[in-house]
Design a protein that fits this description.
With 324 residues, this protein is of the alpha/beta class. Helices cover 22% and strands 26% of the residues.
Length: 324
């Protein structure tokens, strides 16, 4: 396992305009909290963007959940671990072992708290396991937002949270699409250099400095950029509001209801109404809540509490795909 201090990126790839929506979705594999229960799994989500698969947290049995959802684990390229409480990463070593046994040779990029590399190294050492694929680990600074992944159309940034141990969420933000060029309105002899300028949204000037082709006349704006924020275990933490402001979809933990608000604060978790308050103040498009405590058997109360603060609230449901 190597420690990767560089951004996972393709620095030489210039983004091109994309005009039909790129697939962008999240699949909830587990929405339970620390204590396992029948039919309720520990935290894991699969985010799909274009052809890339991003695994967010990896609670126990995550690889089984992937298989049940007909997702080939070998397609994973990026894994993000929010913190080192077991219900968020105890499924990671088995997943890596299975990828190795299946013959994986492609690079895998792992982001998580400092110390995660020590845990995995110890497991592999005492079990005499040797990975046959490059595993690049980058430790996350839990004190400030950090750009982790920079792809042609998407960035992933960490979100510092307020939990009992170092913990971060993750913000997936699509880069603003370039304008769409209306070629049919242009003369057939327009030079390629001018087309490139217009695609970038720049006016084309003539030799005297006057506008020959105005970008506003020959392009239309691309579709709005989309975004998803994953806020793992945390107390109610207003400092995250500005960072996630306006995201299309927010997942925020809601371990307790207001009947256990004091307990939630003591153990560095949130209630459903606190999660909804974050969503309301951040003016997000939609809120999904999860990480429900095993003391609750029904979730209607969670939904009612959240919607009393922020009407666009819903429960995260295991096995559900949400398009962003």
């Amino acid at each position: 396992m190597t420690e990767n201090t560089e951004l996972a990126r393709n620095p030489n790839h210039e983004p091109e305009g994309h005009h039909s929506p790129i697939p962008f979705s999240v699949l909830f594999l587990g929405v339970g909290s620390a204590t396992p229960m029948p039919g309720r799994h520990q935290t894991a989500q699969l985010l799909t963007y274009q052809n890339d698969l991003f695994l967010i947290d990896c609670g126990e049995a995550t690889q089984y959940r992937l298989i049940e959802q007909r997702v080939r684990p070998g397609r994973l390229r990026y894994i993000f671990i929010s913190h080192l409480h077991g219900d968020h990463y105890f499924g990671l070593a088995p997943l890596l072992s299975s990828l190795n046994l299946s013959g994986r040779t492609e690079d895998l990029f792992l982001f998580g708290p400092r110390g995660l590399d020590e845990v995995l190294t110890t497991i592999f050492r005492v079990s005499d396991a040797r990975l046959n694929f490059p595993l690049h680990f980058q430790a996350i600074d839990p004190s400030e937002p950090s750009l982790l992944v920079d792809l042609p159309h998407l960035t992933v940034t960490s979100i510092p949270l307020d939990h009992r141990i170092a913990c971060t969420g993750f913000l997936f933000r699509e880069k603003p699409p370039l304008p769409k060029l209306l070629r049919e309105l242009l003369p057939p002899d327009v030079p390629v250099s001018a087309l490139k300028q217009l695609k970038r949204g720049d006016d084309v000037l003539d030799e005297t400095g006057n506008v020959r082709f105005a970008a506003a006349d020959y392009t239309v704006p691309g579709p709005p950029a989309r975004s998803y924020a994953f806020c793992s275990d945390t107390r109610y933490f207003p400092p995250i509001i500005d960072q996630i402001r306006g995201v299309d979809l927010l997942y925020h933990e809601a371990t307790f209801m207001d009947d256990n608000a004091e307990r939630a604060n003591q153990v560095y978790h949130s209630t459903a109404s606190e999660a909804a308050t974050v969503a309301q103040k951040a003016e997000v498009g939609r809120l999904l809540i999860g990480h429900f405590s095993s003391r609750y058997k029904q979730f209607d109360g969670f939904l009612a509490e959240a919607r009393s603060v922020f009407s666009e609230s819903d429960l995260a449901v295991e096995g559900q795909h949400i398009d962003i």
